[in-house]
Structure to design on (105 residues):
């Protein structure tokens, strides 16, 4: 697996977004009911929001089932023509075509 950005860099980029109040690190991919309730009580989160594409866990279940059941899930429409796969592909293409190579060991 190729790591494109370190967590430190991702946190810095997301922190720069004017609508971001706080970043919670080390959030599990599969959010169980206990962790979801911690988000609501300890962090004061009102809703868990995701795009309108399906988000499934490895076992095929809905990743946001707990939030939906609690009435704390909001879905947003994806922006037509914007693809994270295309963005990553463009990034990798630019990186691989670079004339300079850097080695971080």
């Amino acid at each position: 697996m190729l790591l494109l950005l370190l967590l430190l860099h991702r946190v810095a980029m997301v922190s720069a977004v004017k609508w971001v109040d706080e970043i919670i690190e080390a959030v599990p991919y599969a959010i169980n009911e206990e962790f979801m309730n911690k988000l609501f009580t300890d962090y004061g989160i009102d809703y868990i929001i995701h795009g309108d594409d399906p988000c499934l866990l490895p076992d095929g279940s809905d990743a946001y089932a707990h939030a939906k059941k609690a009435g704390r899930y909001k879905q947003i429409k994806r922006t037509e023509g914007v693809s994270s796969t295309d963005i990553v592909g463009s990034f990798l293409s630019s990186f691989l075509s670079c004339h300079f190579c850097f080695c971080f060991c």
Remarks:
- The two ends are 16 Å apart (CA to CA).
- The helical segments are 7-15, 33-42, 65-69, 84-96.
